[in-house]
């Protein structure tokens, strides 16, 4: 069973150097262990997905420019998240407020060649009532 991602869940980008917390803005009625549960719509840069420390992707223009200036030595730059669309749902039939829920196994692509995943969803237990 997949756990729901909730406000404060830890996210990580394959091209980043630090985790970022998830902010839930798509709904506030459905709670997971007392916190708002996320949907796949919680995918906006800076609004829902914060920076991942430093970016190491040469597809990021800032990294490419700094690396070129350093004569080809990879020079990470501050991350500015660039989600490429919304989260890819793994449980598309489980809806929260009409939108697929965001679970721990969902992924989202970054326009700078990375992929964003949920490392700690927030929810830790499921009641089987």
Q: Quick one: how many beta strands?
A: 10
Number of domains: 1
Straight-line distance between termini:
14 Å
Uncertain residue ranges: none
- In terms of quaternary structure, the protein is single chain
Going across the biggest sheet, name each strand in turn: 2-1-10-9
SS-derived structural category? mainly beta
CATH architecture: Sandwich
Q: What kind of sheet is the major sheet?
A: 4 strands, antiparallel
Mean pLDDT: 94
Mind telling me the CATH class? Mainly Beta
Overall morphology: elongated
What topology emerges from the helices and strands here?
Elements (H helix, E strand, L loop, with lengths): L4 E9 L6 E2 L9 E2 L2 E2 L17 E2 L5 H9 L7 E2 L16 E2 L2 E2 L6 E3 L5 E8 L7
Compact summary:
The protein is mainly beta and 129 residues long.
Could you walk me through the main structural features you see in this protein, from its secondary elements to its overall organization?
With 129 residues, this protein is mainly beta. It has one domain (5-53, 81-122): Tumour Suppressor Smad4. It has one helix and ten strands. It has one helix at residues 61-69; strands at 5-13, 20-21, 31-32, 35-36, 54-55, 77-78, 95-96, 99-100, 107-109, 115-122. Strands 2-1-10-9 form a four-stranded antiparallel β-sheet, with no helix packed on it. A hairpin with a 2-residue loop joins strand 7 and strand 8 (99-100). It starts with a strand and ends in a 7-residue tail after the last strand. The model has no long low-confidence stretch (mean pLDDT 94).
């Amino acid at each position: 069973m997949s756990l729901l991602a909730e406000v404060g869940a830890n996210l990580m980008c394959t091209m980043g150097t630090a985790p970022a917390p998830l902010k839930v803005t798509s709904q506030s009625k459905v709670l997971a262990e007392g916190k708002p549960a996320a949907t796949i719509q919680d995918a906006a840069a800076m609004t829902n997905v914060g920076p991942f420390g430093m970016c190491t992707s040469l597809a990021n223009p800032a990294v490419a420019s700094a690396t070129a200036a350093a004569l080809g030595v990879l020079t990470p730059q501050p991350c500015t998240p660039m989600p490429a669309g919304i989260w890819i749902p793994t449980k598309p039939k489980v809806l929260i407020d009409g939108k697929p829920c965001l679970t721990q196994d969902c992924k989202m692509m970054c326009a700078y060649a990375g992929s964003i995943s949920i490392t700690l969803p927030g929810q830790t237990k499921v009641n089987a009532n």
